[in-house]
Amino acid sequence: MRRGRGWWGGWDLSGMGPWGRWSRFFDTGEVRLALLSLLGSGPKHGYQLIKDLEERSNGMYRASAGAVYPNLQQLEDEGLVTSETKDGKRVYTLTDAGRADLEREKDRVAQIWNRAEKWSVWAPGGGPEVAMVATTGFMVVKAAISAAKRAGADAEFATKIRDILDRARREIEALKPEP
Questions:
Q1: Cβ–Cβ contacts within 10 Å for residue 169, how many?
Q2: pLDDT by residue (tens digit) across 29-70?
């Protein structure tokens, strides 16, 4: 990692999962593109799209109906998808205009899914809970480094910081999940 500006003590964590320049999984307009991309493989109902978004992000993004359905409605209003009710479910299908839009935005769509792969590296099989713990861990490291800088050449102060971190490490290592 190189030094730079950022919320995490000046470290540049761009491209490093939830702690990088992407504090949200999707940037403005990207849910729309992700949905178009998923519909590129065939018609799907809303719930399937929600599950596909979670799967493509290896569980790091869990879309809500409040994020997906308004975007689907917008895509339909723009003529990029159509919908019809089948077996009691509303099924969405990409239109020719939607395919053309997807083709125009193929580089941006590729960036979205590449970023999804980077995010998933941080929590393979662990999901957002692992990301949450790691974020807190980074904040603890930041606090320890800041305190050590304030201490300067005070070896006793640095030893206290190290002892606190060692105690926390031992406690964490001793934790066992409840059955």
A1: 10
A2: 889 999 999 999 999 999 999 999 888 876 767 788 988 999
Listed in sequence order, the residues at least 6 apart from 160 whose beta carbon sits closer than 8 Å to its beta carbon are: none
The rounded distance, in Å, linking the Cα atoms of 147 and 41 is 52
Answer whether 69's CB lies under 8 Å from 46's CB: yes
Query: Is 0.90 surpassed by the pTM of this model?
Result: no
- Can you spell out the DSSP letters for 30-98? HHHHHHHHHHTTS-EEHHHHHHHHHHHTTTS----HHHHHHHHHHHHHTTSEEEEEETTEEEEEE-HHH
Query: Could you give the 3-state DSSP secondary structure of residue 11?
Result: strand
